[in-house]
Amino acid sequence: MVTVTEPRLLVPVDESASLRNTVAYAVDEAISRAGEEREPATIHFVFPLAERISFRNSSSRADAARTLLDRVASWAEEDAKGADITIETALVATHEYLSTPNDYADVLVRYANEHDLGLAVFDPRYDPIGSTPLLPSLEAEVRRAGLTVEEAPRDAEQPSQPLVRRGTLTQFFALFAASFGFYLLLAGSVAPFELATGAISAGIVAVALWRVSLTSPVAPLQTVKRLARFCLYVPFLLWEIVKANVEIAYIVLHPDLPIDPEMVEFDAAVWSALPVTTLANSITLTPGTLTVDVERQHLIIHTLTGSAREDLFAGTLERAVRFVFYGRAAARIPSPFERREEDDA
């Protein structure tokens, strides 16, 4: 078995609980391997950052990535303790869309080849797209491309939040009612057999998931109000879909096919998972716009035409979603276009 002593290391970084430990491990490895090879050690800390097309020259995500790289470089210099080691940092893939282990592996291998790096050290909790299975697949792809791969040892496990939380009877009955209603909707009948089997199924779902699926206490009055506002939102959304379908049909039938595709992004003025998901899905359901990526309330959207972009940044859907979840007063907010002008001012 050949022992690899390559003193030129590639270390992908992202926020994680074990990042500090990974930096220390990478520095120790680089110094040790440099001693064996009798040449200076080099570590390249890289942050793969998919392109974020924005109104501003610098997005908050890019700024956060640069801040993290600066912090990592400081840690590495502290751990080096005067040793002959070169620390490099870089944002990579700033003009690419990354979504799979293959995408990340291609970027990392390309960077390693350009800078003559032979060893990739991975943080055991490296998870840039929030997908737990990414790391093993990513390591395998990088190794398959010819690089030597090592994983930094795991530090002491941090206490994790329990999957099962304390639940309330309100949450139990809310989940039971939602499951029962959904069952009857799919069944399309309120016959005694459907009512009985629906109640049994909903009971099983509620017992199994009432302390898992509901992340916050259920306020019955607020829930009823939201459902009522949602009933108003549905015909509004259908009308927006109809209008967009007419426009897309016109474009498809037009001899010149007047499309102007472009990727755009903005920070939506909605918070928590359900409102963001509602807005993202509403945008996707409207022909001419497609939600490509969502990170918290930051949306990346593919738009097919200029008018689709204008409608998107006019904030009509965003205001409607805010109306559903936060009430009438919350719908009176600046549109994404108006917020852009405020940022530029």
From TrEMBL:
Transmembrane residue ranges: 172-193, 199-219
Main location: membrane
Key words, A-Z: Cell membrane, Membrane, Transmembrane, Transmembrane helix
Record carries keyword rRNA-binding: no
UniProt-annotated location(s): Cell membrane
Superkingdom, natural source: Archaea
GO cellular component: plasma membrane
Pfam family, one: MNHE
InterPro entries assigned: Cation_antiport_E, Rossmann-like_a/b/a_fold
Claim: Membrane is one of the keywords in the record: yes
Membrane topology per record: Multi-pass membrane protein
GO MF annotations in UniProt: monoatomic cation transmembrane transporter activity
The protein, known as: Putative monovalent cation/H+ antiporter subunit E
High-level lineage: Archaea, Methanobacteriati, Methanobacteriota, Stenosarchaea group, Halobacteria
